[in-house]
Amino acid sequence: MKVAVVTFPGSNCDYDLYKAIQQVGGEPTFVWHRERGLDGFDAVMLPGGFSYGDYLRAGAIARMSPVMEDVVAFAEGGGPVLGVCNGFQILCEAGLLPGALVKNASLRFESRDVLLRVENTGNLFTADYEVGDVLRVPIAHGEGNYQADEGTLERLEGEGRVIFRYVDAAGAATDAANPNGSLRNIAGIVNERGNVLGMMPHPERAMEPLLGSSDGVGVFTSLSRSLVPATS
Amino acid sequence: MSTAEGVTRVPPRAGDPDITPEVVAGHGLSEEEFERIVRILGREPTFTELGVFSAMWSEHCGYKNSKRMLRLLPTQAPWVIQGPGENAGVIDIGDGFALAFKIESHNHPSAVEPYQGAATGVGGILRDIFTMGARPIAVLDSLHFGDLASGRVRYLFSGVVAGIGDYGNCTGIPNIGGETFFDRGYEGNPVVNAMCLGLLKQDQLIRASASGTGSALMAVGARTGRDGIHGATFASEELSADSDEASRPQVQVGDPFTEKLLLEASLELIASGAITGIQDMGAAGITSSASEMAGRGGSGVEIDTARVPVREPGMTPYEILLSESQERMLVVAEPGKEAEVHRILEKWELEAAVIGHVTDDGRFRVLEDGRVVADIPALPLTEGCPTYEREGVESPDVQTLRSMDLSEHAKPSGDLSALFLRMVGSPNVASKRWVYGQYDTTVRTSTAVRPGGDAGVVRIRGTRRAVAATTDCNGRHVYLDPGVGARAAMAEAARNLVCVGALPTAITNNLNFGNPLKPHIYHQFREAVLGMAEACRIFETPVTGGNVSFYNETDGRAIYPTPVIGMVGVVEDVDDITPQAFRTAGDSVILLGRNTDELGGSEYLYVTADLVAGAPPAVDLLAERSLQQAVLAMIRARKIRSAHDCAEGGLACALAESAVGFGEDPWGVDVTLDDDLPPVAVLFGEANGRVVVSSAPEDAAEVLRIAERHGIPARRIGTVGEIGGPFRMHVKNAQVEVDAMRIADAFYGAIPAIMDAPAISGV
Predict the structure, then answer these.
(1) Would the pTM count as exceeding 0.90?
(2) Residue A22 touches chain B, beta carbons under 8 Å
(3) Of B135, B494, B558, B574, whose CB has the highest number of CB atoms within 10 Å?
(4) Which residue from B minimizes the CA distance to A112?
(5) How far apart are CA A49 and CA A8, in angstroms?
(6) pLDDT at res. B536
(7) Are B679 and B410 in contact (CB under 8 A)?
(8) Is the ipTM of this structure higher than 0.90?
């Protein structure tokens, strides 16, 4: 699995994604935001961080980076794209995913482990999980409050495009389990075609028991398994 | 122009004020210091030169009232690669890796503008680390505030936490711990200290010196503006009630996004080999960075202020030299490598400009568009700051407080269970999740122990090793007895490290005190440094650098003396990492160390009697050292499942913390303590030298044997109960019995209940 990890000025989870990809046997390459062309990659990942300092609005400036034209083309061609945290925000700003991520309901940065329920496994990113699995994964964001109009939410739900939801230990999507005020406790969604996943929690930070959880590994193994190698 | 005697003539610059005694005093320089400047120059200084001396000879840069005492601190050990005097200390941590680390204060700016004051404090300490060629891997923060009952304190507290959080979060450095302490002794002046750890391969170390005649001096990063002019001098003065408005222009504004770019660009510059020196333009800006690099390199520098990229036109050399605009660096590029420096900075969308060059004449020379405006011998400027040993006399008020009879307070009053819950919910004992929940703690995917434990732990990729770090200082104890309190801070820091499985290795210190010209303050400073020095020797933890912050006073009232210890340790094998939380029902709970009837300076007295009095608990440094070795031996033998230091709130609160863990459902506890001591002393006394461990029942005997071998008193006091079970402590003729869930509610709910209450007034 050859993966482009796109880095913007201010990305800071690029290295973490890089190590997570390596851990499942993938071959990551950093692609600087001013570079062009994503040929030869099997997947593209947009890391977390504060691209352009989150000035103006999270992801609003990064989505105008030259490489984003290629990311859009890659996604439109069916290539798998994963955006985590700031990456999710950039995907929404770029129009690859519906809705928007606004300030957390608490108006504060929220950093902690959350529990996520896997809602759908019929896509490239969650095939290695079972529906209903509850995963422990860290979050760390100030603007992760997912908002969309009622029609969009109904479509996302109806088409099975809500992939992760914030839940409590019993697997229930309660207000207390929702760290940021996201509508319907939404933590991660895919596009219509199912090849673009955006999620606020950091699966790349849940890769080994030493650091508190290895529940995020499945996101990377699912993708790796679903891909036919681009070369050989 | 040089004369035959080496005296240079620098004509006054048109428009600059004349040098009058008032102007000299306004720069914080004494008559005697001014005379010394005249001797050094062989003439009167120009206004620009006066500003340069004022900044370099400020307390903040020149350490004039602390240097003599600081020389008494041990600074050497075989594993010390870089001791005090550089941007940060560096130690060998094995496997070819080195750790750069340092702590720094931003108390004054945080008292005036909490968000920016704290944020720029983090920015400064990060730059100190990455200018050593180290990649920052963790931040800790040591915070001391007034009582949260005060609206102004809540305003400062929330602003400081948000400032630290936003800066660290944006730059992508995990926060792994620290401390937060509340006591009205910090009402006017919060203590805001930030510590950073950085990792480097031993051969990547770079030092901040300017050498190689003809090498270019380049200003890199943000442009120079009119913010923070004379911040170093400001940090060397007391605050007054109107400092808020008047001093705000001296507080800098941080831009963490530019910092992140500067971090990456600097590490790339160092790796490229294009530069031979790099230094943050921190306190006293271009002046200190350029003159210190010249001083260390044994060379000279010449700078033209007209070539410095500025934010607005019309800035004078005085302003450009003394600006403390953030996110700027001075780098020394090898001749011919300027283009490569430009290329790297361009990639990171940063500006760089050649502003001068290295000379061989030992002068710190400044031109304005080719015309000399300052010409000073570099070494006397950086090293010639007069140092003083002041008179130190203990305040009689403190003597009275220390000798106060506390026996009335040792008598149990009312329901001990209710009292226990009150203690667990006191802000000094309660969970600080409200604080670290705003800090990214997991970015860089190496944080093995997050904030909330005894010490933070970061693993070193590619090895079995990890590094641990903690910051500690109970200012109350230092206030009541500076020597004992400083030893206690060292002892607590070391206990915190061994509890997570790390061998204490070295320290950085942040000495926060009032005005050293006052004899009772200087007494506190001297005794604290002496106590710290003794503990450093016994623990074999040398000082590799740090920071002194004097003049933490408002309207003549000083903070508690607060010598914060930032201690680092090495975990040899990540399997040694030990949690503070209990792990298994039925495990044996073992107390290492001895209970005493010392209630002096305790959280119990503060909570129940609103009192800071009595002698703080004694410290036996040799016994502490044995305890440290015993705990590490137990961990390495895999005989204990948890370990936790006893500190604020005493044994009862330590057990509560091990029961509640990291926010999971709490464990029940059932222990019996048969000490022939007053119940409140056993429960809440803060005797040093104690650690609570838990072990599988079959390992308990071996744990006791290891303790005995190290000469440490140890006894099995009870067992870990079921999750959600009762928490019981039986002491002589009394007991505490509460539901473990209620402990968790009190522990986690206390600070949010104060900070998130709607419509808090009084800000």
Answers:
(1) yes
(2) no
(3) B494
(4) B437
(5) 9
(6) 98
(7) no
(8) yes
Question: Which chain A residues have a beta carbon less than 8 Å from that of B459?
Answer: 210-211
Closest Cα partner for B666 from B722, B712, B616?
Answer: B722
Chain A residues closer than 8 Å to B160 by CB: none
Residue, of A149 and B203, whose pLDDT is higher: A149
- Out of A50, A205, A210, name the one closest to residue B459 (CB): A210
- Reading the block at residue B37, the tokens are 């400047």
Give mean pLDDT, residues A147-170.
97
Residue B237's CB is within 10 A of a number of other CB atoms, namely 18
Q: How far is the alpha carbon of A141 from chain B, nearest alpha carbon, in Å?
A: 8
pLDDT in tens, B15-47: 888 999 999 998 989 999 999 999 999 999 999
For residue B595 the two structure tokens come to: 């209970």
CA distances from B223 to B283, B312, B330, B449, B624 (A): 16, 9, 12, 38, 50
Cα(B213)–Cα(B491) distance, integer angstroms: 48
Catalytic residue among B60, B108, B409, B523: B60
What distance in Å separates residue A16's CA from the closest CA in chain B? 6
Angle at CA of residue B170, ends B165 and B175, nearest 5°: 45
Angle at B540 between CA B539 and CA B545, to 5 degrees: 110
HSE, side-chain direction, 13 A CA sphere, residue A35: 12
**Alpha carbon distance B614, B395 (integer Å):** 15
Select which of B106, B230, B477, B644 is catalytic. Answer: B106
Which residue reads 């943000």 in tokens?
A: B222
Considering only CB atoms, B170 lies closest to which of A13, A50, A138, namely A50
d(CA B282, CA B293): 13
Residue A185, min C-alpha distance to chain B (Å): 19
Closest CB to B437 among A110, A142, A205? A110
**Chain B environment of A211 (Cβ under 8 Å):** 442, 445-448, 459
* More confident position, A57 or B651: B651
Which of A:166-225 have CB within 8 Å of B? 202, 204-205, 207, 210-212
Strands B456-459 and B466-472: antiparallel
User: What are the DSSP calls for B139-187, one per residue?
Assistant: EEEEEEE--TTSHHHHHHHHHHHHHHHHHHHHHT--EEEEEEEE-GGGS
Mutate one of A210, A217, A220 to test the B interface: name it (highest B CB count within 10 A).
Answer: A210
Relative to beta strand B691-695, strand B642-645 is antiparallel
Q: Which residues contact B509 (CB under 8 A, 6 or more apart)?
A: B73, B103, B532, B543, B546, B547, B563, B564, B565, B566
pLDDT, tens digit, 9 for 90 and up, residues B6-20: 577 888 888 888 999
Domains in chain A (CATH in brackets) are 2-227 (3.40.50.880)
Instruction: Report the Cα A8 to chain-centroid distance in Å.
Output: 16
pLDDT digit string (tens) for A106-116? 999 999 999 99
* DSSP element (H, E) containing B286: helix B285-297
Q: Do A10 and B162 touch (CB under 8 A)?
A: no
Mean pLDDT value of segment A216-221: 98
The string of pLDDT tens digits covering residues B252-261 is: 778 899 999 9
Give the span between the Cα atoms of B579 and B131, in whole angstroms: 33
Question: What are the residues facing B447 on neighbouring strands?
Answer: B458
The position carrying tokens 């140092």 is B387
Residues A168, A113 contacting (CB under 8 angstroms)? no
CA distance, residue B458 to nearest chain A CA (Å): 9
Q: Which residues are CB-neighbours of B634 under 8 A, at least 6 positions away? A: B640, B643, B693, B695, B703, B706, B707
Q: Would you state the structure tokens that stand for residue B274, as one six-digit string?
A: 């294009």
Average pLDDT for B626-651? 98
Tokens of B416: 């001990």
Chain B hits for A110, Cβ within 8 Å: 437-438
